[in-house]
Design brief:
312 residues; Rossmann fold; eleven-stranded mixed beta sheet; 12 helices
Length: 312
């Protein structure tokens, strides 16, 4: 059964500025409560860097087939396309009039079409809604995009309004964490936000084997004091290459202790009043445990704030 809609249909809008060579930013619109905030974040980021915004809605092919099978009460084909186009253009006119946004309507599997658009355009950032009706879990489309889209992905919660006020960057001192810190610093500077750089260490009091094997009997410090001093030094080394940029913003390093990094990070993000958490990813794979890492996966799903997943 066909719906009469081609795999993708582009609705051009005349640009108020010439196309730039910079990678575009894509705003994935699902018409949920978070969609206006998604569009505003994309426009804001693009404006800072002179990039093109592409806003897109994907008509789910499964829903289209279901609607078509339901009879004449449901619009299909060109009529549904026209309705979707008008709705998307109305959102653009309301939230970003005169911004020169390119509008697209596609049909297919939403996560796959969004990823395809990123690949076709070489986009640097995909902004999407969490679409989480329970406020506790990402919708399946957002979750798949974070795992698989070949660019940075920002997931906006439906309560998000305006600029971010407090940003938490999660770090394990790895290269992916370094890039996440760069993005966090950039966002904090752009939006006037406070920045926390958070690392979770294993509690020295629980590490009985380390105390036996690694602690010198004549050390002036206890084993726990040595571990905490080492973590402090690791944090300072991690921050040192970014000292000049950090000096321009309000920032604070935080070292937590927990046997479960993911739980500690999630609770801290929730309790600290953050409205965005930035985390790094480790590569590109359909296996989420490899792609995100266990801690990032848990944080992504359990924290009820907006999330920026940064690719390396």
């Amino acid at each position: 059964m066909t719906t009469g809609i081609s795999p993708w249909l582009v609705v051009p809008i005349r640009l108020n500025h010439p196309m730039t060579a910079l990678a575009p930013i894509i705003a994935g619109i699902d018409f949920s409560a978070a969609s206006p905030a998604v569009l505003r974040q994309a426009v804001h980021a693009a404006g800072l860097h002179g990039a093109l915004v592409i806003t897109v809605h994907v008509l789910d092919s499964g829903s289209l087939a279901h609607r078509a099978a339901s009879g004449g009460a449901n619009p299909g084909g060109d009529l549904l396309l026209a309705q979707t186009r008008r709705k998307l253009e109305a959102l653009v006119d309301a939230e970003a009039p005169g911004s020169g946004i390119r509008v697209e309507v596609r049909a297919g599997a939403p996560a796959e079409e969004l990823q395809r658009l990123v690949q076709e355009t070489g986009a640097s950032l995909l902004v999407i809604a969490a679409n989480d009706l329970t406020k506790k879990r990402l919708g399946s489309i957002a979750s798949r995009c974070v795992r698989s889209a070949p660019c940075d992905v920002m997931v906006i919660r439906d309560w998000q309004e305006g600029s971010f006020a407090k940003i938490v960057v999660c770090t394990d001192f790895s290269p992916s964490s370094a890039r996440a810190l760069e993005r966090g610093i950039s966002l904090a500077a752009e939006q006037g936000a406070r920045l926390e750089i958070v690392h979770v260490m294993y509690p020295p009091s629980r590490d009985i084997w380390g105390e036996v094997l690694e602690h010198a009997a004549d050390s002036p410090l206890t084993y726990a004091e040595e571990c905490r001093a080492d973590a402090d030094r690791d944090m300072q080394r991690f921050l040192a290459p970014h000292a000049a940029a950090l000096a321009e913003i309000e920032h604070h390093p935080v070292i937590l202790e927990s046997i479960s990094s993911s739980m500690a990070l999630t609770h801290h993000v929730q309790d600290s009043g953050a409205d965005l958490v930035v985390l790094g990813t480790r590569g590109h794979s359909k296996l989420s445990s490899f792609f995100l890492g266990t801690n990032a996966e848990r944080l992504l799903h359990d924290a009820t704030v907006s999330v920026l997943a940064v690719r390396i």
